[in-house]
Amino acid sequence: MEAASIPVRRSSRAKRLVQPLAFLGTPTALLLAFFLAPMLVMLGVALDRGLLDGGTGFNLTLTNFTDVISDPLNRKVALTTFEIATAAMLVQLIVAVPLAYVIAFKAGRWQVPILLFLVLADELNPMVRIYAWRMLLGREGLINEGLMSIGIISQPIDALLFSQFAVTVVLSTSYLTYTVIPIYGAMKAIDGNVFEAARDLGAGWWTTTRRVLLPLIAPGIFISLLLVYVPLFTDFASPALVGGTSGYMLGNVVNDYVLEAGDLNRGAAMSIIMLVLSALFALVAYRLARINRLES
Amino acid sequence: MAGAAAPPAGLGARRPAAAADDPPPPVHRSLGHRIRGRLPGLAGGLLVAFVMLVLFGPVLMLALFSFNDSSIISLPWEGFTTKWYEEAWANGQARDAVANSLIVATVVMVLSVVLGTMAAWGLTRLRFRGRGMVAGLNGAVLVVPWLIIGVAGLIFFSQLQVQLSLTTITLMHLVVTFPLVVAIVSAGLVRFQRSLEEAAIDLGATQLQMLRYVVLPQIGPSIAAASIFAFAWSFNNFEISFFTGGFEQTFPVWVFSILRQSENLPVVNAVSTVIAAAQILAVFAGWALMKRLSKSDDDESLTGLLTGGTR
Q: Scanning A16, B68, B173, B255, which has its CA 20 to 30 A from the CA of B310?
């Protein structure tokens, strides 16, 4: 088959140049113009002394980066962001691993409907979801009203909304689909016999989970981390709407620099730092996923 | 409930089969074991129910309260009304925002599917220098957070002194969305047999005829899945619209600004309910379309496609 197609391709050298250009020219040009170019411009702006700092023309400087990093408030927000993102990731993994197991091995004819609903949950507008949670968690929200009406609490719990708790809840529900699906994918690839083998060899469920299941789904977990943990660090709408001052995250800081203070240069520096960190993290997670896949 | 209904696929079903082959140890028949045997299925069902409740409960609540005759969203129930829907319909800002989102998402969907399918074909079927770099560029777009792309877009357009508008939103949405189509359609193209394409060419079909009559029917489900996701990615996109939209509001940006000012909340309820209902319909319609296009009853490979889009 290859032999038949080679002479056709060799027949015109020009075709080999024209075809890739015809299929990929426009898409690639768009990516260069509106993805790569903005990134480079942002890098340039981050390295430039801004108008607010008396810069004229292009003045190469690293002060935007040093300012952003040395600001104690930013460090505090970075720590909060790390805490919230990690908590949300852990909550999701704790739910996702058993859920993926149930879907892959126990759900039977419910498997496809459950997956469809997970996809649907992801398709629902995130702003609608955030808004719905705000309604539930508020001081006069349904959870407080409900708990008060059955007499469990006498005062509404204020900490439900505008807190790290609220951001963690909203973020966990926003990304759950992306956490479950890769782990489910890894589970589907497992031959169910290994569990039986483990049981026959005398392993209890905990040993089976730790020594058989977790190693086999490790690549899926790393993909989940890649897809969810990184975006969690940059989320901006959830902390802005349900976080209050205690649930302030790095995305809000970027927004404050860029839109509130109009300081494009420091906003750009902050974005570049977040981009580099997320790229490093993504690279590590990707490598780990690959290595684990090769081993298993 | 889910586990109990499971046909042979599950582990739970395998246990009794194994027990039937071996000489059955009498301990397995004890009541304690029988209850414990049922527990995993029950726990699984409860877990699924809990997750569904957390994922959809809040939105259902929101829909319910959009019919409540009260300007604040809380109990007690003040009676059924549709006045928030009338107010929402009369609200110019709400209508503009939804219309903007629909226009942008439709344009982005159509262009993304065309560009993405072209690029997927080029990347999977053609050999040329720089292929790895082009593929890498497509992949990079998918992992860079939207917040950062939005900020970069804002800075880029402001440096070029381009007025922010629906056009800038659309361009930025397009650039982050079509690589997703590339990923989904590439996966479809890699899966099916190339020999059919070569047979078509050997039988004298032109490249275009081959694409039209051989390739398109085979990757139909992938393209349907990609369309659903492309529309949703653009329609739901908040960060990029927020930073590159200037004074133009899309639906998510409108909700965000209303929530920031904490006003007009029941109207948001009504609009959100309509949007959520439309999205639910769209997903199930898309699913039905994919099933039709694929002409097979293999639900699992289709869910694979659909879930592949969430990556």
A: B255
